[in-house]
Amino acid sequence: MIVLDTQARSRLGRLGPFVDWPGLTVAIIDHHLGEPAFGQVRVIQPQACATGELVYDLIRRHPGALTLPMAEGLYTALVTDTGSFRFSNTDPQAHAMAAHLLSMGVRPEPLLAQIHQHRHPNRLRFLGTVLSRVQLTSDGAVSWLEADRELMDRFDVDGSDTEGLVDFPRALPGVEAVALFTETDNGRVKVSFRSTGKVDVDSVARIFGGGGHRAASGALVRGPLSAARERVLQALEEAVTRARNGGSGSSA
Known about the structure:
Layout: E1 2-4, E2 27-30, E3 41-44, H1 51-59, H2 68-81, H3 92-103, H4 108-116, H5 121-132, E4 135-136, E5 142-147, H6 149-154, E6 177-183, E7 188-195, H7 201-207, E8 211-212, E9 216-222, H8 225-244
């Protein structure tokens, strides 16, 4: 079993039990911080901007093995994991990889259309409603958005339709950290974090059992949404204060 882009067994869902199958070798390929709790083979490089970059490096160890369909998948992985090359961890290696994949015949336009444009009309209405309710702390440093079950049911959307929502408030002047709260079916709240770079949102996510990167992270928090929001925003505001004071530590 090859596990990509996570070291958290809890995120494997229905595939989780297979990890314990006798004789099964589990390999983890990931670029997130943290110690893996399972797996016999671990390729972990937090400095890589995308897990697809690690897969690309592995494939290129075998000359001639990289095909055009592989290149298209890797380009898709690179674009989505770097926020279309907008995230702060995008490095020269990512652009060099993209250039090589394009030289192989990858056409960005149809791939980007599949990633971003193939959505139903209700998703656009849903996004507009959520964005119209964007909130800010009194000093404008923290912004948050909410997608509760009532709203998601009204527009007939699911968790995948919230993709990219958390990135919008980062464009607001003065905002240093963003949280998107999404209610799940099992009573928990998925929290997606983003930072403009100064605030370490990974340290905040780890307080709640999650993790990721300094500028992009996430966690699953006990509900209800109102209680989750209160706890998370308090931790996020404390992280902003630490960043302003030149510190990066976390507190439980």
